Amino acid sequence: MFSSTIFLSLLFPLTITAQSCGTRCALYTLAWSDQFDGNAVDTSMWNYRTGPRLASYQRKENVEQIDGELIITQKKESYQGLNYTAGGLISVPNFHYGYFEAYVKLNKGGGWHNAFWLMCGNGSKTVYTNTHTEIDIFEIETSKPKEMINAMNFWLGNGNRASGYSAVHRPRKNSTEWNLHSALWTEERVVFFENGKLVWDYTFGPQAWTHNYINIWLTTVANAAFGTEDSALPSSMRVGNVSYYQKDYYLTSSTLCFFDNPSSANCPSNAGYSETGSGWTTSSLSGYTKKLSTRYVTGSSNAAATWSLSSLKVSGTYDVSAFIVVYSNSDPKAKYQLLKNGQVVQEDIEIDQTKGVNRWAVIASNVTMNTGENWAVRVKASGVGSIRADTVKFIRTA
Ligand SMILES: *[C@@H]1O[C@H](CO)[C@@H](O)[C@H](O)[C@H]1NC(C)=O
Ligand SMILES: *[C@@H]1O[C@H](CO)[C@@H](O)[C@H](O)[C@H]1NC(C)=O
Ligand SMILES: *[C@@H]1O[C@H](CO)[C@@H](O)[C@H](O)[C@H]1NC(C)=O
Ligand SMILES: *[C@@H]1O[C@H](CO)[C@@H](O)[C@H](O)[C@H]1NC(C)=O
Ligand SMILES: *[C@@H]1O[C@H](CO)[C@@H](O)[C@H](O)[C@H]1NC(C)=O
């Protein structure tokens, strides 16, 4: 299904829009999806979750695709000092704001902690060294099949949690039946849905905690705290499909990597961002979201930074804004341009980066953009003060 979607979209402006969250998801179109067709996990889309967690050891041998479903098998099996094995998948691509959805049926029998959740990760471990955010679209202890938890967890990067918030829903449809779980993550909030019904609306602005790139996790682990029901094993967590729908594009100058090894190919990208002129440096001033670094260069009149959407995915009307990082020694006459396929379509909007508060500044409104076009924002230094670069957003309005 996914590969045919990609194929068709090259020939026709075909778009699949999100359905299960009503008008809130208007204009969100399918950007990444797995229907789990075929007889093997597509490892260009997924890494395996491996290693110990709670009472089970996670193995790739426990993860299969059968009859169009992802099957993660829970076993009573001694492995690496633990008495159970299970597994999980973690998406290879990382994502930002959008609508995330999965169709899931859980095992009968207690003692398993199952989840569809969002956090940076590539399967190597559960703890990463940078500050990051975890969004749990559902966590279900199978001992309580009619109880579902939605949660937000804010991590410090040293293995410790700064804070966490959750909502518990009960009673609900039994998790041993098929349920559609989803969440819409925007710059202002995360809204959770179950079977198309809004269940939790959590306000989550970019200064509340880091809005970093995240990966999709589909996982099951044995939880000894709830007493694993051995008589029900082997059993499985089944997933019919999982999807990511996107509306807006955020491009950032941040070089902060959420993995331990910043040279890892799996690091969240600052793809689309480039600098010209020498002397660009990472600043200690943060920008639109907490903990993400920004960039600056001082006294260089030929310096510029460009945020470029190499090939727009979906035609529409967009508003374009740049985040202004204000500081007393910044550039008082920074000039912002909008470019289409390399040509300037809107000249020099002058913005004083020394005045006011950190904010989004509108660069262009109601711009008609078409699939395949390259759209970019460029900021040029005046040569006075330090020009600062952070994030640019393309917000689809129609
Ligand atoms: C595994 O099961 C054995 C036998 O019941 C028990 O002695 C051991 O403590 C269990 N291991 C763990 C890690 O729970
Ligand atoms: C959930 O459904 C399973 C059958 O799939 C059943 O055994 C179990 O009792 C149900 N649980 C509740 C709390 O209704
Ligand atoms: C996933 O499956 C559910 C249930 O059939 C369906 O509502 C949803 O549209 C499917 N998503 C995709 C992208 O196929
Ligand atoms: C995950 O990233 C780490 C670096 O932090 C790397 O050592 C490891 O090989 C990566 N694993 C996968 C499956 O890509
Ligand atoms: C953009 O379009 C909307 C709806 O047509 C209109 O209300 C608004 O004034 C326009 N904004 C600009 C800056 O042209």
Describe this protein with a few key phrases.
398 residues; mainly beta; Jelly Rolls; 2 domains; 17-stranded mixed sheet; 5-stranded antiparallel sheet; 1 helix; 29 strands; 51% strand; binds 2-acetamido-2-deoxy-beta-D-glucopyranose; GH16 domain-containing protein; Glycosyl_Hydrlase_16; Beta-glucanase-like; hydrolase activity, hydrolyzing O-glycosyl compounds
Helix content: under 10%
Tell me which ligands are bound.
2-acetamido-2-deoxy-beta-D-glucopyranose
Shape: elongated
Biggest sheet overview? 17 strands, mixed
Highest CATH level, the class of the largest domain: Mainly Beta
Report the sheet-strand fraction. Answer: over 45%
Structural class: mainly beta
Q: DSSP helix count? A: 1
Level-2 CATH architecture of the largest domain: Sandwich
Radius of gyration: 22 Å
Number of strands: 29
CATH-derived topology of the largest domain: Jelly Rolls
Kindly give the count of domains: 2
Low-confidence stretches: 1-13
Gist of the model:
Residues 30-250 form the GH16 domain. It comes from Clonostachys chloroleuca. With 398 residues, the chain is mainly β.
Please explain how this structure is put together:
This protein has 398 residues and is mostly beta strands. The protein folds into two domains: 246 residues, Jelly Rolls (Sandwich); 147 residues, Sandwich (Jelly Rolls), CATH 2.60.120.260. It is built from one helix and 29 strands. The strands form four sheets. The protein has a 17-stranded mixed sheet that branches. One 2-acetamido-2-deoxy-beta-D-glucopyranose binds next to strand 1 and strand 17.
